[in-house]
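Ops channel
N.P.: pipeline sanity check, posting one input/output pair.
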């Protein structure tokens, strides 16, 4: 059979399952799981005034996501409604750079927020949510129709929408969807993870990536200013360096060399290079401030509040507190807790190596070459190369795929589940962690905005997971939303 024929057969079989109206006992719903939609990621006009308000990439994402929601809305599986679980990063609160406008705010704007746009306080986040709801109105309308048809929604927090921990933001999100026909009772927020015992465990996965993790997942606030959400190294670099720099991408830095950064910097011109250097130094200073926060006395009360919320979660969900603590122990401490790893994380080695190359080149042009000078330069460059290699070892890999895969196997020993599901990496995969459990990464619906004629380095996979129950046993398949407007096996 040809590949096209096999895909057609898989799609037909899947549609036949969806068309079945005979409910199986024991389960009130089937699961539809996706992740990393990043609504609002293109709203960067505060730091990039010339950026388009809505790009072709954004329009394509909205169109496909709306079509997927409408398609499943009309096709409940085996007589059971769908429970849609969005496993983090539905809204890109962190990546946005938006101006205050005429709105009034209780939380005054810090100097950083004046430079880079509205921040992470609850009232700032509410303003962001209002703009996203209007900017992606068709997606919110599709979610409203989906729930009005009897399906339910669970929002799991990710690192880009960590600001959903504010109750006021959750309430406002519910209000937006009820305005589109949903009922408030059909919307649930999972502060950490979503779990159906023995069947499925779902979380975003950023807590196993030390570039993106938060020290206190249930109470992610700044110790010295609890009005604002905590920020990871990745958050700071994205907000202060990547978003304001035209042409700089969020992904691909793991493979960049010092020469690559030098070439990019020279393309910016003198003014652009100066601005980039200034933003980089401000970001490093901000990160060093976060490092000091970890060691402050104020950090202790955040820890106590986190522990209190963990006990409440255990009671509310009828889970073992010991198991929750064991699960928390699998998380990777944020890289901002170590000054050495922090400096490695901002690639200070590559910056220093690039500066050294420039200064060495200028020095050679201004100096008469001698054999002794050649030996000196060779020794210096060799020492820098060795130092850069050592720094890379400290930094580790930016791609967290291996870490999530490893932790998924350990998660299943604490919270047994046939499927351990995460997102975060934007790279879909299915990996058998044991005979009893399988790790699934959901991929992404978002891709980076690129200039016209340029190909995205990490295109959206448009993947989602369907979990159904046959004889009370969960079965799962990863599907991709195809160009012809229906799901096909990935």
């Amino acid at each position: 059979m040809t590949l096209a024929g096999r895909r057609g057969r898989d799609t037909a079989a899947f549609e036949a399952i969806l068309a079945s109206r005979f409910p199986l006992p024991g389960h009130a719903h089937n699961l539809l799981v996706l992740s990393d939609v990043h609504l609002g990621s293109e709203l960067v006009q505060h730091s990039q005034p010339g950026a388009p308000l809505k790009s072709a990439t954004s329009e394509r994402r909205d169109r496909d996501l709306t079509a997927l929601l409408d398609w499943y809305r009309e096709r409940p599986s085996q007589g059971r409604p769908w429970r849609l679980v969005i496993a983090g990063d539905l809204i890109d609160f962190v990546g946005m750079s938006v101006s205050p406008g005429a709105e009034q705010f209780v939380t005054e704007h810090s100097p950083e927020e004046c430079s880079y746009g509205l921040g992470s306080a609850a009232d700032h986040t509410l303003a962001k949510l209002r703009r996203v709801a209007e900017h992606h109105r068709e997606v919110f309308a599709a979610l409203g129709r989906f729930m009005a048809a009897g399906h339910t929604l669970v929002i799991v927090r990710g690192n880009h929408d960590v600001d959903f921990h504010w109750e006021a933001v959750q309430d406002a999100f519910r209000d937006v969807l009820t305005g589109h026909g949903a009922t408030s009772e059909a919307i649930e927020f999972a502060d950490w993870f979503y779990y159906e015992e023995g069947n499925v465990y779902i979380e975003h996965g950023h807590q196993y990536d030390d570039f993106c993790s938060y020290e206190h997942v249930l109470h992610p606030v700044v110790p010295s200013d609890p009005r604002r959400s905590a920020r990871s190294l990745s958050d700071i670099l994205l907000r202060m360096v990547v978003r304001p720099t035209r042409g700089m991408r969020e992904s691909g830095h793991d493979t960049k060399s010092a020469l690559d950064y030098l070439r990019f910097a020279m393309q910016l011109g003198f003014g652009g290079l100066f601005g980039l250097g200034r933003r980089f130094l401000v970001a490093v200073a901000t990160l060093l401030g976060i490092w000091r926060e970890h060691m402050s006395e104020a950090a202790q009360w955040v820890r106590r509040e986190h522990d209190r919320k963990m006990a409440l979660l255990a009671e509310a969900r009828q889970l073992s507190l010991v198991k929750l603590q064991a699960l928390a122990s699998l998380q990777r401490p944020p890289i901002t807790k170590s000054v050495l790893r922090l400096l490695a994380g901002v690639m200070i080695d590559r910056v220093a190596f690039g500066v050294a190359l420039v200064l060495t080149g200028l020095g050679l042009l201004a100096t008469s070459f001698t054999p002794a000078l050649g030996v000196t330069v060779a020794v210096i460059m060799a020492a820098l190369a060795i130092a850069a290699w050592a720094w890379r070892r400290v930094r580790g890999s930016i791609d967290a795929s291996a870490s999530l895969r490893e932790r998924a196997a350990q998660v299943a020993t604490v919270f047994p589940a046939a499927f351990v599901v995460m997102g975060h990496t934007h790279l879909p995969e299915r990996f058998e962690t044991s005979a009893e459990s399988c790790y699934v990464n959901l991929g992404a619906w978002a891709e980076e905005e690129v200039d016209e004629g340029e190909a995205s380095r990490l295109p959206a996979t448009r993947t989602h997971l369907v979990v159904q129950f046959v004889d009370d046993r969960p079965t799962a398949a990863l599907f991709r939303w195809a160009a012809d407007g229906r799901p096909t096996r990935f």
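N.P.: looks fine end to end. The two ends are 17 Å apart (CA to CA).
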